[in-house]
């Protein structure tokens, strides 16, 4: 920052000294976007050296000088500028150029060179917002054309919010993961079309599975519409670039899996995102549409929620074209037990009887009888006969036991 200021000051003073007509020319004063935040003081560039180049320079010098190439310009005035200005590659805005041939003074000649050098720059190194990119939709707050009750006015901007972070007290996002929060001026970038919205589904463990505690397992997740295998350094480039898509419109990115312990499968407690048992980026590209991550050592016994975080290359969650869409991520719930068996495994057959309201008492009695040691086949025969008669149908539902009774009877709780 100080360096930049110093250079700017050097440039200003040298420009002034190089000027044949040092009176500041208001037409050539440009408001700059050199620094995203605090130093508005250094943001005014007066192209006072361009006394002879009034029209053209208005669009131009700003980019070059802002790009920090002031060192080159320091060469100074007149013909001396010719060499130094070669470095002004940042001058994307120089479409105006100097065509005022009436200005023949040495200073004008120097500035012409400046502009010529500058024109070799491109939009991606320019520090000015190109007028073709102004997002005019951001100028309205959304309240004019009908609004839902409670809808609030949007913040608006005439300049794409390029200096938005100056309105906050947050540090600028700088590619590190700033735990106390930050303000990011990087654009959201390329938004995936509705035909290319990512989604995913865990294949293993799948929803409601039970797996063995403290034992290696591999998470597998099928993924659609994400061009996987693209991830940048999360320590230096986190949220540090826009989302981008490939030539077919798919977001180029990667996914993550996070596993959090929860109270139970029926838990209604809101989870705490600062706490999780396992987190892993699926860094490799999907194989046959499936991403994999080994969980070395497995998990302790418990109940878990497992979620995906489908992301762009710079780790931001994927962005898609419309607000109303199915989930772009998956979440499943599974149980981890010491033996890898569901705790109520022996009673699983009871599920089949849930609908047989009228049979509850009978079933309880059958179980009791089984527990006091009556023979299994005899009980089944007794149970079926009256049931079928009472229901009065030969359908599957006529059986009180479905597939469950034999299991119950042979494996009493
Ligand atoms: C061209 O430069 C001359 C000399 O500085 C100046 O008097 C004149 O107004 C300029 N013309 C335009 C169109 O800027
Ligand atoms: C100078 O350049 C501007 C912008 O391109 C143009 O509109 C104008 O006609 C030019 N004038 C001369 C004298 O070439
Ligand atoms: C990034 O910003 C944070 C917060 O201002 C700061 O603590 C950290 O040193 C910065 N890191 C780099 C590499 O600029
Ligand atoms: C579990 O995974 C770890 C890490 O990959 C590996 O070193 C270990 O051999 C695995 N254990 C078994 C029993 O496969």
TrEMBL record:
InterPro entries according to UniProt: Appressorial_penetr-assoc
Keyword Signal in annotation: yes
| Superkingdom in the source lineage | Eukaryota
Positions of region (Disordered): 91-126, 383-413
Q: Where is the signal peptide?
A: 1-26
Which keywords annotate this record? Answer: Signal
Q: Which PANTHER family match?
A: G-PROTEIN COUPLED RECEPTORS FAMILY 1 PROFILE DOMAIN-CONTAINING PROTEIN, VWFA DOMAIN-CONTAINING PROTEIN
What is the designated name of this protein?
Uncharacterized protein
* Species name: Rhodofomes roseus
């Amino acid at each position: 920052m100080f360096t930049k200021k110093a250079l700017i000051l050097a440039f200003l003073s040298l420009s002034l000294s190089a000027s044949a007509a040092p009176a500041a020319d208001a037409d050539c004063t440009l408001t700059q976007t050199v620094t995203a935040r605090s130093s508005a003081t250094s943001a005014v560039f007066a192209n006072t050296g361009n006394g002879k180049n009034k029209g053209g320079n208005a669009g131009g010098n700003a980019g070059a000088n802002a790009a920090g190439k002031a060192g080159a310009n320091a060469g100074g005035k007149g013909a001396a500028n010719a060499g130094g200005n070669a470095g002004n590659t940042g001058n994307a805005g120089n479409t105006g150029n100097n065509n005022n041939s009436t200005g023949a003074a040495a200073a004008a000649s120097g500035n012409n060179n400046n502009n010529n050098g500058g024109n070799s720059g491109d939009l991606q190194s320019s520090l000015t917002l190109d007028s073709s990119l102004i997002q005019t939709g951001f100028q309205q707050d959304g309240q004019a054309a009908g609004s839902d009750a409670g809808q609030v006015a949007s913040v608006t901007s005439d300049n794409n919010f390029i200096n938005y972070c100056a309105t906050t007290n947050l540090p600028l996002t700088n590619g590190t993961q700033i735990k106390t929060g930050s303000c990011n001026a990087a654009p959201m970038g390329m938004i995936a079309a509705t035909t290319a919205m990512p989604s995913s589904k865990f294949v293993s463990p799948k929803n409601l599975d039970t797996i063995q505690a403290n034992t290696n397992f591999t998470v597998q997740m099928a993924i659609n519409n994400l061009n996987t295998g693209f991830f940048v350094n999360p320590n230096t480039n986190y949220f540090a670039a826009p989302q981008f898509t490939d030539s077919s419109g798919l977001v180029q990115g990667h996914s993550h899996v996070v596993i959090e312990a929860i109270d139970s499968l029926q838990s209604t407690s809101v989870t705490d995102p600062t706490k999780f048992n396992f987190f892993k980026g699926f860094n490799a590209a999907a194989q046959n549409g499936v991403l994999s991550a080994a969980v070395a050592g497995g998990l302790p016994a418990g109940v878990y929620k497992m979620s995906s975080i489908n992301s762009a290359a710079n780790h931001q969650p994927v962005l898609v074209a419309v607000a109303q869409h199915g989930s772009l991520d998956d979440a499943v719930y599974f149980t981890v037990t010491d033996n890898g068996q569901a705790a109520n495994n022996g009673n699983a057959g009871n599920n089949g009887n849930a609908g047989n309201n009228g049979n509850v008492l009978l079933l309880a009695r059958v179980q009791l009888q089984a527990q006091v040691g009556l023979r299994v086949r005899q009980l089944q025969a007794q149970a079926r006969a009256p049931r079928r008669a009472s229901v009065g149908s030969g359908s599957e539902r006529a059986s009180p036991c479905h597939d469950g009774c034999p299991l119950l009877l042979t494996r009493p709780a």
